[in-house]
Amino acid sequence: MSNPHTLEELQDFKGKYPKQIWYLFFSEMWERFSFYGMRGMLTYFMITQLMMDDAVANLQYGATQAFVYAFTFIGGLFADKILGFRKSLFWGGLLMIIGSMILAADPHRFFFLGISFNIIGTGFFKPNISTMVGALYKDGDYRRDAGFSLFYSGINIGALLGGYFCISIGKGTMLGNVVPEALTWNVAFGLVAVVMTISLLTFVYTRNTMATIGLSPLRDITKPGNTIIASKKWYEYAVYAGGLISIPIIMKMVATPRYVDYFMYIVGPASLLYLFYEMTKHSAAEVKRLFAALLFIVFSVIFWAIFEQAGGSLTIFAANNLDNTLLGVIKLDPNGVNNAANSLFVIIFAPIIGIVWIAMARKKLEPNTVVKFGLGFLFLGLAFYTFYATRFFANAEGIASLDVFTLAYFIVTLGELCLSPIGLSAMTKLSPGRLQGLMMGMWFLASAYGQYVAGLFGASIASDMAAVTPAEKLIVYTEGYKDMAIYAVVAGVILIVIAPFVRKRLMGHVH
Ligand code: GLN
User: Fold this and answer.
1) Max CA-CA distance within the chain?
2) What separation in Å is there between the alpha carbon of 444 and the centre of ligand 1?
3) Mean pLDDT over residues 72-97, rounded?
4) pLDDT surpassing 80 at residue 462
């Protein structure tokens, strides 16, 4: 089949998915491999190789996570205004490759430099590839949410593989007989660089199948290709230069976690003010839809704050309070389950749920976006109630059932699938053309806040010093999960109650 020349031709695809979604799927899958591969090594590397103490390493890990998602706002903004999505992706991917190569060369010496390259690179890459997925669909196409669900499955394949391979190579438990002991971390970070190169090449070789999607808004339309008009070329160079100049600043800020607090106080309000300013340039109907998008963004902060206990308090819970047998026979490390169960469930169930949405849409039964969000929270609440309920399946020493814990992860995943891919999809449905990147950036910025609040929640649970034995810890942690279950259910009920209003008053024709 030849490549479509116009956007209309491309969006007129037959079947469930446009073929271009597969190219973005693989490019994002490899990018997430690199992202989660690296993220999985950070804390361990800081503690065992850079000899930081646990608390400092955890704070610094939190700082990198907050920054990584905060820069998506900037990456999205410059994509809208200057670079377009394709050039942004390319630039972001390149910075990520350079960052990982720096780490591969000497991770001990250049740790924060390499990480900072990756932070800026992800900011340019991550939101913009998601926006490109949305651009494959016409307004009102009922297959859009399913497309994002599929894309989300790819994200998690990458996350699972990267999260597993990189740290195992770094620790020497994998390839230990081939890689000399002194070089395991170099090889692990090197793998990140190689895989990120595969991601970028996948994109470069397939981007021409995407008609006009992602071209720069400043391109010279008298010429084929994506060259920016000569008089505006310097804007493009200024963005590149700005990205590079930010690197030493980020290096300093990540290394000093106190700055992260200041940064978080500023970037969110600043992004909101900027959005309000942009709203003054749009029609009333567009502004209403932007408010709907904002509502989803705000609720998503609460969602991620609870969900992201996975990397924090649930890790500690898994280490202290779980047995290691699944379904009576399978022996598993509870922390392995904690790290992998969610991704595995997403990989399996995301495409299925996508198909369910399509089937429901054909019968006119598909819940609208607000209700899906509400369901996301109800599942989240049920899941955290299940984490709480592990206390009823524990022995006298406070060691609880891995089965119940895994079941909770299954339910968490259902919640995530009702909210996270749907949120990506909603950003692309609700934002006018020139604000797509910005809104996607804000969607991920909400994740930065979610991570941040998750850390505070987790710390407040862990701060109960009275709990010393596993049995005492079981009570303290599960009590915390019960509170979170209540917050989630309240948020879900609010969303479902306001759904008709939001749909009618704010979202216009958007489902
Ligand atoms: N796990 C998803 C991803 O990596 C969602 C991340 C997020 O929005 N916090 O894309």
Assistant:
1) 76
2) 8
3) 96
4) no
Query: Range of 259's domain?
Result: 15-505
Please tell me the residue having the least CA distance from ligand 1 atom 10.
Answer: 155
Question: pLDDT value at position 297?
Answer: 97
Q: How far is the CA of 234 from the centre of ligand 1 (A)?
A: 33
* Nearest atom of ligand 1 to the alpha carbon of 32: 4
- Residue 183 sits in a domain of what CATH number? 1.20.1250.20
Measuring from each residue's beta carbon to the nearest atom of ligand 1, which residues come in under 6 Å?
Answer: 32, 155, 304, 420, 444, 447
Tokens (6 digits) for 281: 């340039």
Q: Is residue 7 part of a domain?
A: no
Expressed in angstroms and rounded, the spacing between residue 57 Cα and the centre of ligand 1 is: 22
| Three-class SS state of 130 | helix
Say how far apart CA 61 and CA 114 lie, in whole Å. Answer: 14
> For the residues 157-179, what does the mean pLDDT come to?
91
Name the residue among 443, 149, 190, 470 with its Cα closest to residue 295.
443
Q: How many separate domains does the chain show?
A: 1
What percentage of the chain exceeds 70 in pLDDT?
Answer: 99
**pLDDT greater than 90 at residue 322:** no
Confidence check: pLDDT of 20 > 60: yes
Nearest-atom number in ligand 1 for the CA of 308 is 9
Q: Nearest-CA neighbor of 103 among 191, 231, 228?
A: 191
Residue 88 CA, ligand 1 centroid: distance in Å:
19
Predicted confidence band at 130 (pLDDT cuts at 50, 70, 90)? very high
227 within domain boundaries: yes
**Is residue 21 in some structural domain?**
yes
Task: Judge whether 8 lies within some domain.
Answer: no
